[in-house]
Amino acid sequence: MKNAEKYKPLYYMPPEAITDWITKDRLTKPPVWCSVDLRDGNQALVIPMSLEEKVAYYKFLVQIGFKEIEVGFPAASETEYEFLRILIDQDMIPDDVTVQVLTQSREHIIEKTFAAVKGAKRVVMHLYNSTSFAQRQQVFRMIEDEIIAIAREGARLFNKFAKSMPETRFDFEYSPESFTGTEPAFALDICNAVIDIWKEGPAKRMIINLPATVETSMPHVYAQQIAYMNRHLNHREDVIISLHPHNDRGTGVAAAEMGLLAGADRVEGTLFGNGERTGNVDLITLALNLYTHGIDPGLNLSDMPAVVRAYEEWTGLQVGPRHPYAGELVFAAFSGSHQDAIAKGMNFRKERDEPHWTVPYLPLDPADVNREYEADVIRINSQSGKGGISYILERNFGYNLPKDLRAEVGMLIKDISDKAHKELSPKEILGAFVTSYVNFAQPIELVNVDWRREGERTIAELDLRIRGEKYTVIGRGNGSLDAVSRALRGADLQLIFKFEDYYQHALETESDARAAAYVKISDKDGKSYWGIGVHNDITTASTYALISAINRENIVWRFVE
């Protein structure tokens, strides 16, 4: 690209390096979550939500567990004013939930905003004004002292109006908009000026919100800015530091996590990162990142498909198939090596009763967010391997394939997928598997089999149909399968094969307690063939398995005239 030289960094490093947060390897507790879906998220939609949709979305946010929800800019929009009044007048704000409203630092807007929240039990009043160098220079054309004066005036008005409404618990929040584009020393000065005024006022809590209104730096720079503010804010013990990262560089989640490591206490964001441009920080990802480190995030995301459906319905947006934790394909493994590792990991958990989740390639147990292993984890296409295909057959249908058979079945299913150029469903996999291996009846069809004992020997009598002709063959052996094998190699029907292996088990997924038998034979050239038999009686299943293997054997047979 030709014009890179016209760009320069639009952020400011703090005047001192603070590095103690860098040595931390994880967060140890969740932040205070504040959803701004109804403000940042709503204003980013091509068609903003209707009043009814906003009410429904608000109820859903409460249901998920958000205790702080920014509901909008009531002084700027009739819809947002009416929405807020519905929440208050219809008593829709639980006692443990605080609504947050936004206002510019202008007296008539502040006064109207306080009037809009009358009757609410708990409110965060959110004051903001732009502080970045670019905004001061190009938009407001003001010097630093003039910008600070705007913030101070808003802070004083907050104290004034809140004192006249003692029935409401007020928390005050201040945002130096475009914080990351503001010189850190100036950002500190303006925030401290607001804190000093609010310290003497009626606010129960003071929140300093430090937004990356436009993400312009690598995430560690944002964290350094947060660390600087954390160290130097006045009355730090009485102040909650809040983050409001956007995602212009695609690193909003990383910036938020680093900002929390650097001393922040609270995060404002949206479900799935919906917001202007490339969006706000994604609270779903942040919360479940914590969860996979063993920390309860305090949000109920245990039914992720329901969360996705609600979000898509009310925003008109779609969650991408690879969106972390929530996308349709995030748990899917098509790669053969991945499938094999996942299958072995799941078996390891079952064998060892492992208390911690350590399954390869799955940082989160899909069941914890109401995703199904059968439908979501092992997905089969032409790139899949024997491990994944065997896993599908075992977990869904009860077939525990012998090790030597897995590669053969894997090749069969992959070839079908490759030629059809599509993913195969578990039912399609089962269909191909059964058709190729189970009770395979062409050209030899078993019509009936009877056994009887003759001393120490077992006699097997088989009624067969071969290309429309009926045959009866009898064999004597040391056991049932040996007798069947000898009958098939007897005088009436000359077949050449060598018995190689046998394996059986109950089909545990079947309600009628059927059994599966696996027989491996080889021809005169040493080439191996597997057959599978399924029946309520294991001895009969074994007979079906042997005949299936013979039918699959590529040999020339001779019929005695």
What is this structure, in a nutshell?
The chain is α/β, with parallel strands linked by helices.
State the main characteristics.
single chain, 18 helices, three-stranded antiparallel β-sheet, 561 residues, eight-stranded parallel beta barrel, 39% helix, elongated, alpha/beta, 20% strand
Kindly report the spatial arrangement of strands forming the biggest sheet: 1-2-3-4-5-6-7-8
Strand tally? 16
Main sheet specs: 8 strands, parallel, barrel
Q: What would you report as the Rg, rounded to the nearest angstrom? A: 35 Å
- Mean pLDDT across the residues is 92
What's the shape? elongated
Describe, in plain words, how this protein is organized in 3D.
The protein is an alpha/beta fold and 561 residues long. The chain is built from 18 helices and 16 strands. It has helices at 37-43, 51-64, 78-89, 107-116, 133-140, 144-163, 184-199, 219-232, 252-261, 283-291, 304-315, 336-352, 373-376, 386-397, 403-420, 426-437, 480-488, 538-552, and strands spanning 32-35, 68-72, 98-104, 122-130, 169-177, 205-212, 239-245, 266-269, 444-454, 457-466, 469-477, 493-494, 498-506, 515-522, 528-535, 558-559. An 8-stranded parallel beta barrel has the order 1-2-3-4-5-6-7-8, surrounded by 8 helices. Strands 9-10-11 form a 3-stranded antiparallel β-sheet. Helix 6 (144-163) packs parallel to helix 7 (184-199), helix 8 runs parallel beside helix 9 (252-261) and helix 12 crosses helix 14. Mean pLDDT is 92; it is low at 555-561.
